[in-house]
Amino acid sequence: MTVAAAPADGDRLAFIGRIRTPWTDRRDCPRQGSTDGPECRLIVDDVWIPALAGLDDYATIEVLYWLDRARRDLVTQSPRGDGTVYGTFALRSPVRPNPIGTSIVRLDRIERGILTVRGLDCLDGTPLLDIKPDRALFIPKAPPKSGV
Q: For residues 100 and 66, what is the distance between their CA atoms, to the nearest angstrom?
């Protein structure tokens, strides 16, 4: 099954939905989500709902999202504010050149294209990029490639 999606453009991302969380201000948002945290919802666009088939086999999933309100200009950062500086790529800070967030979350349920999860750390309304089974739990469905 295919959908009428935008053609692959090499340098553009296509959002597949939006994320609903309790946080509207970055100061209130947790630094790292916790699977015992509050319920959050992944609202998947209608065209992508069939792509969720089989995802409910997994207790945890990986969610990728676009941190649309994050700065993109810091090369080094002092996360503790104590003068200790780290390179941006050594941190999980949302401030990065391509602000892609990723979380392993607990999947509680899927109902009509809405995934209820726990463990997110992003603001309400964050664009949803992708959803994948937790790689630690994933068993490949395709046969092995020969010679690899």
A: 5
- CA nearest neighbour of 124 among 32, 42, 34: 42
CB 49 within 8 A of CB 114: no
Would you list the domain boundaries of the chain? Answer: 20-133
Rounded average pLDDT over 107-126: 96
Tell the residue number behind the tokens 């949302």, with chain if given.
Answer: 94
Residue 8 reports pLDDT greater than 70: no
Judging by beta carbons within 10 Å of its beta carbon (0-12, 13-18, 19+), is residue 9 exposed, middle or buried? exposed
∠ CA 32-34-40, nearest 5°, is: 100
Classify domain 20-133 at the CATH superfamily level: YaeB-like (2.40.30.70)
Instruction: Indicate the range of 14-28, 88-102, 104-118, 125-139 predicted with least confidence.
Output: 88-102
Question: What are φ and ψ of residue 131, in 5° steps?
Answer: -135, 135
Specify the higher pLDDT residue, 94 or 54: 54
> What pTM was estimated for this model as a whole?
0.84
Read off the tokens for 95: 């401030």
